[in-house]
Amino acid sequence: MKTPAEAAEFITAFIAEAFAESGISASIAPDMALIGDDSNLDSQKLVELCLALEDWAATSGFEFDWTSEAAMSRSQSMFRSVASLAKEVSEQSKAAA
Q: Ramachandran region of residue 36, left (φ > 0), alpha (ψ -120 to 50) or beta?
């Protein structure tokens, strides 16, 4: 079972690497937007993050589902922020335990 802090650490490390590769200097905070006009993360990197989370989840013994209707709904999206995505990953981990 993964905690929100563990998930946030993984997500933050992935984003930091993506920003470094792209030459983006932006701080990564729990409330950083992952989608929308305020996001520094492009759609390709967001998909890569989701695939990396799938792999991370699989090695941790659960399946990360990022294609659900809730995930795709902007108003309720797990992709609103780093914190909301970390919380969703943790909740999916707990549900699988």
A: left
Give the pLDDT confidence score for residue 72 in this predicted structure.
66
Do 15 and 27 form a contact (C-beta atoms < 8 A)?
Answer: no
Task: Return d(Cα 1, Cα 97) in angstroms, integer.
Answer: 6
The 10 Å Cβ neighbour count of residue 88 is 23
pLDDT tens-digit profile of 38-77? 899 999 999 999 999 999 999 999 999 998 776 666 557 8
> 34, 26 in Cβ contact below 8 A?
no
CATH number, domain with residue 80 = 1.10.1200
Type of residue numbered 89? V
User: What secondary structure letter does DSSP report for 74?
Assistant: T
Domain region containing 17? 4-96
**Would you say 8 and 91 are in contact if contact means Cβ atoms under 8 Å apart?**
no
